[in-house]
Design goal:
There is one protein chain. By secondary structure, the protein is an alpha+beta fold. It is 22% helix and 29% strand. The termini are far apart.
Length: 404
């Protein structure tokens, strides 16, 4: 056999060995199930979701379907924010995997995709009493030599729930109950506020918008006092962005002894009853549309401005009614800095009137007249001793009058 043929056979043998090694390695490692990113959760209809569980163990937040929306179970079934629920479900459905890692449960703890060690756990479940997991996501740790994150699929099928993948972009999930609640309670425009009335066991005062401007002024300023405008403005604008920190059903152990009433230009009146206990402030709230004039259809010659005014009135009336229906059964905990603006007393808004200095001195019976300095003594230029002023002359009683 020629040297050329031997060389060719040698090369072929080396190639065969290399191919066998490659095949062995490929067969013994997990393989990506697709050559392009695929969705982790597939074929799920969001309408089938009855319950969403976020988080782990005692920190888990449960969101339950109620009528056309969801409620937060741990907050006495307070309504959840629809946009946040939609965002949560969309984030789960939009997770794409770039590589399959393992389906061996023994590897789960090391990848931190067990429910105990995971960063996030989201379960989308069927209705009770036989609730099962429709789909879910367990978010583990970041890949050691890459920029991806390990994720595990949750389903009612144990085999599928063992699968761990890498996703290049894991979404952020809110974990607290308030992440899924609309915390803004009232948002009134400053220019729409007409007056604010604050009442407490110590009395009542009224702030009104100054004529020709948006600044607040105090009605009936006490004699000898002046209005502290900066403090008054914080009270007047307290409802331009009123948020709450927590919410629950109305308890029986709170005494609502204070009140904050805000009237808007469109005749909407917000009333907040306020209770304070253990350094915390709680409010109940309602809205009323005080313009009871009926809205009737006018003639065909109504101007666009008249039609717009009627429409605005109907919208404001409906908004007030809905606000009361949605909030009257609840008590809201308000942050301390916000509570100060809702509960300031009249004494906090006034200070002693400043008087001119001369007037103060004239009216003070205890004022001491300042001592005038003595006139300096003059010296005789011809002597070192000071010249003493001459003694006054005494008139001679027997002397004749001058000029007699």
């Amino acid at each position: 056999m020629s040297d050329k043929k031997l060389t060719i056979l040698g090369i072929a043998a080396v190639v065969a060995v290399l191919w066998a090694v490659i095949q062995a390695r490929v067969s013994n490692r997990p393989r990506s199930e697709a050559d392009r990113p695929v969705y982790l959760i597939q074929g799920l209809d969001p309408a089938d979701i009855d319950t969403i569980v976020m988080g782990k163990a005692e920190d888990a937040v449960t969101l339950k379907r109620d009528k056309n929306g969801f409620v937060v179970a741990s907050k006495d079934n307070y309504p959840a924010k629809t946009s946040e629920i939609n965002s949560l479900v969309s984030k789960c459905l939009e997770i794409k995997t770039s590589e399959f890692i393992t389906d061996n449960p023994a590897n789960h703890e090391d990848l931190e995709v067990t429910e105990e060690k995971a960063r996030n756990v989201i379960k989308l479940m069927t209705p009770e009493p036989n609730s099962t997991v429709l789909a879910g996501v367990v978010v583990g740790k970041t890949e050691e030599l890459g920029q991806g994150t390990y994720v595990r699929l949750l389903t009612s099928d144990p085999a599928l729930s063992n699968r761990v993948y890498v996703t290049p972009n894991v979404p952020w999930f809110g974990t607290g109950a308030t992440s899924y609640i609309e915390q803004e309670l009232i948002s009134a425009k400053r220019e729409d506020i007409e007056s604010v009335t604050v009442s407490s066991p110590n009395g009542q005062y009224v702030l009104k918008k100054a004529e020709g401007g948006d600044e607040a002024v105090l009605e009936n300023v006490p004699a000898g006092k002046t209005f502290k405008s900066s403090d008054g403005q914080s009270v007047f604008t307290a409802l331009t962005s009123l948020r709450f920190d927590d919410v629950r059903k109305k308890p029986a152990d709170l005494k609502f002894e204070k009140q904050y009433v805000c009237k808007l230009k469109d005749s909407t009146v917000y009333t907040l009853d306020i209770a304070q206990k253990d350094d915390k402030t709680y409010v109940t709230c309602k809205a009323e549309f005080t313009d009871t004039t009926p809205v009737v259809k006018g003639s065909d010659v109504e101007t666009p401005e008249e039609l717009k005014a009627k429409e605005a009135k109907l919208l404001a009336r409906d908004k007030a009614a809905k606000f009361t229906a949605d909030h009257q059964a609840w008590v809201f905990e308000i942050a301390g800095w916000t509570a100060k603006s809702l509960t300031k007393e009249l004494a906090d808004l006034v200070e002693d009137e400043k008087k001119p200095k001369q007037e103060d001195a004239a009216e003070d019976p205890n004022a001491v007249t300042p001592i005038q300095p003595a006139a300096p003594q003059t010296k005789d230029p011809n002597t070192a001793a000071p010249v003493q002023p001459a003694a006054p002359q005494t008139a001679d009683p027997n002397a004749a009058p001058s000029g007699s």
